[in-house]
Amino acid sequence: MEDALLLALQLLGATIRVATPLVLAAFAGMYCERAGVVDIGLEGKMLAGAFFSAAVASATLNPWLGLLAGIAAGVALAMVHGFACVTHNGNQVVSGMAINILVAGLAPTLAYAWFHQGGQTPLLPNQARIPAVQLPGVEALAGVPVLGPVYRELFDANNILIWVTLVLVIATHWVLYRSRFGLRLRAVGENPAAVDTAGLSVAKLRYQALLVTGVLTGMAGSYLSTGHGAGFVRDMTAGKGYLALAALIFGKWRPGPTLFACLLFAFTDAVQVRLQGVVLPGIGVIPVQFIQMLPYVLTVLLLAGFVGKAVAPKASGIPYVKER
Amino acid sequence: MLLSGSGKGQPGAVPGWVGYALLPVLNLVAAFVLSGLVILVIGENPVDVLSLLLSEALGYPEAIGYTLYYTTDFIFTGLAVAIAFHCGLFNIGGEGQAYLGGLGAGLVALALTGWPWPVVAVLAVLASALFGAAWAFIPAWLQAKRGSHIVITTIMFNFIAASIMTWLLVDVLIRPGSQSPETREFDPGVWLPSMDRALGWFGITIPASPLNLSFLWALACCLLFHVFLRRTRWGYELRTVGRNERAAVYAGISPSRNIIIAMLISGALAGFVGVNEILGVQHRVILNFTGGVGFVGIAVALMGRNHPVGIILAALLFGVLAQGGGQLSFEYPTINRELVMVIQGLVILFAGAMENLFKPQVEALFRRRGGAAADATTGGRG
């Protein structure tokens, strides 16, 4: 009983840790897609955030400067995306792919040139990593059944960025549905012509949305390399940006369901780590590759079965050209 | 957006070659200038690096062979992306489809030891088309019947393909007693002849390179692509769906049927990468032989304006980058292979996503010159 509880709690704890970058990236995508800009480049922005965070944290031994650098990298790429798609009405999927390919090449190239460690940054010492929050009273509660382990496994020693993400999730819900900015954001994604007629700048709103996207993806990358991990390694995002996009679609571009989708993907990931090499009764050992592809297969199944026709914001992916 | 500049004599009208040649070249120059900045940042001389890249790709016959070998892959994936584009679909799954196509070609080559190579080649082409098409079919069906977002499903299928292929090569197809995850080498009799060997039969000698007969198949595919799209009813229906799905429905054309057809052809074309790589060069099924060709195909199709001739030219450009860029790391210890991806990414960004970047300026330039010319012909007011 105690063991089962502990296992479940450990799985949930791992889920939260794995979900954090997914949630950040998916919510990043939510802002720009709600404003009518599709962003396949979440992956690239995260990777850039991860690299520049780790690079700066490693050089300055200051995780906060690293975080800032990661955010700056995310924002810079988001602005490139905006320049291509909003200012020049370029193809949004192509721009996103270009950013992904560019960063997949740029990060190891710069890492190789700057650190000479085969495309990685040096291992970050603890002082250069974004710290975890130690909660009070863990010892005191340790003896209490259920509550003690829950408190310890789920709430204590979480990275600061996990708590920040929690706040951002709640804030996003408020911003989207309760604030003037959110109302306009949703309007510009559904009917930019109406927003334009109302005298608001479509381009400005879309750039503002992309700014938030850049900040959040930068944070997601920073979490990967300086919060959860201790340094940048090649391809460390490993498709998380795409998975976040899938979560966003599965969540129908709404905060609550999107959060749920991220947690679900993260949970399958946490389970797959546990399942590796375990002998299942009647089946035997499942090859590790099949377990690893679980989140992807799940995504396809969910898109095919549960979501059905995913109804995106109407103007999503379509450049807005003012009538002349 | 295509309309501006087409009306002759209108203000802002520009000659056709501006759109087809001048703007792409300007975008390319911009991409290379930025690549040069990246090269500066890592501490090398951009002019030296880029000129070495060009000479390693085009400077001598052997290099040209290598460049054309890469070009072959990019023609296949470029056509694959383009046919889906014509139907209004974004096939990002070329990577996975090419990977599975290689499996198809490889299984044929493994099974038919001792058969004459022309038979094996034909069957391998069919098998790679079948495997590639099958891998594209599922996302196509999901898009057509269930409305699943094809961009996401094809991306997921890339990941799933990678997992399945790793499993097959590690656990199933691996050469007995081997440590590295790859199949046994095919019997040399079934290899697709390299171009130097094939030309040798006609008494023509060229230096040995991985360039093989599949290059000719790629050119043939360009022709078939054009005939299918422009000269057949199916091609017409497919393009109609791509242009206006609702109009297609009123014309009695089924969008879902055409979505599936377009993706099947797309997957088959991407699958042919397997013939070039597996049957023509590697002679065994290996891990990750695709190395991003599916993604480059997107850029090739865009730059080539989804037209076969454009695709051949764009594929050549990316072939130059792949070959020349790959050679750089031998000359410059500070440069690794990933620099090619930086240049590729920038080329895609400028030539694909920011294709209209210089358009206003160029149009303004022509307007001014056009205005001056008009003044000259009327001879002023005198």
Task: Walk me through the structure.
The complex is a heterodimer of chains A (324) and B (382). Chain A is 70% helix and 2% strand. Chain A has helices spanning 2-34, 42-60, 63-87, 92-115, 138-141, 147-155, 160-178, 180-190, 192-197, 202-228, 240-250, 255-275, 288-292, 294-307; strands spanning 132-133, 158-159, 279-280, 284-285. Chain A has a two-stranded antiparallel sheet. A two-stranded antiparallel ribbon of chain A has the order 3-4. In chain A, β3 (279-280) and β4 form a beta hairpin. In chain A, α1 packs antiparallel against α10, α1 packs across α12 (255-275) and α11 runs parallel beside α14 (294-307). The N and C termini of chain A lie far apart (70 Å). Chain B is mainly alpha-helical. In chain B, α5 runs antiparallel to α12 and α8 (214-231) packs across α9 (233-243). The longest helix of chain B has 30 residues, at 117-146. Classes of the chains: A mainly alpha (324), B mainly alpha (382).
